[in-house]
Amino acid sequence: MVNSISDNVKAVRDIIAEAAVRSGREPKDIKLVAAAKTHCAEFIKEAISAGVDAVGENRVQEMLQKHEQGAYKGAPLHFIGHLQSNKVNKLVGVCDLIESVDSVDLLKRIGNRAVSLDITQDVLIEINIGEEPQKAGIIPNQLPQLLESAGQIKGVNVLGFMAIPPIIDENDKNCYYFNKMFQLFVDIRAKKYDNVSVRFLSMGMSDSYYDAILCGANVVRVGSAIFNKRNY
Q1: How do the residues of the chain divide into helix, strand and coil, expressed in percent and rounded to 5?
Q2: In 83, 99, 111, 206, which residue has its Cα 20 to 30 A from 160's Cα atom?
């Protein structure tokens, strides 16, 4: 039996609430992003009606098509996929938050486009916390230099970090990388950079968001646990 999207959102909210309390926070402190890749506009509207905090998309063209269909009305839109530099102009001003910025070049392109639109674009910096060569994101020791550069770029506002840690079966090892991300989050938040206000730590997906919250995440990106299995 396949549960309804509204039932799924309620179940996810209950799990978020338990993890939030266990981590010393309130459920309202955790933002639930519905990861909507391949899911239709009607399903997204159901998820928004059920109370998700935002919708995340991985593919620019798919996002633009669903945006034209009014899929995201009533909720902020996040871009959570790998961002190619030639797609920047299509995202800035459409997405409320771009979660996957991983270079100074991307920051500059986003800033230039935002300035041309007379807006400021909110972004997160994607961290390759496992330092995996096949993955996007900057490695942790490159982060301070990138944030220093961000202070010189008009039109962008860095609000925190996003990560997709290595997939490991044992929960304790997943928590190892989540804890590393949280420590980085805490360390950077204690410093001062222009155009940087470290508020959000986005990590954890359908199979790991409970552990991610226990380790300090305040944004989780949940797909199949809300929309059921994707139909490719």
Answers
A1: 45, 20, 35
A2: 206
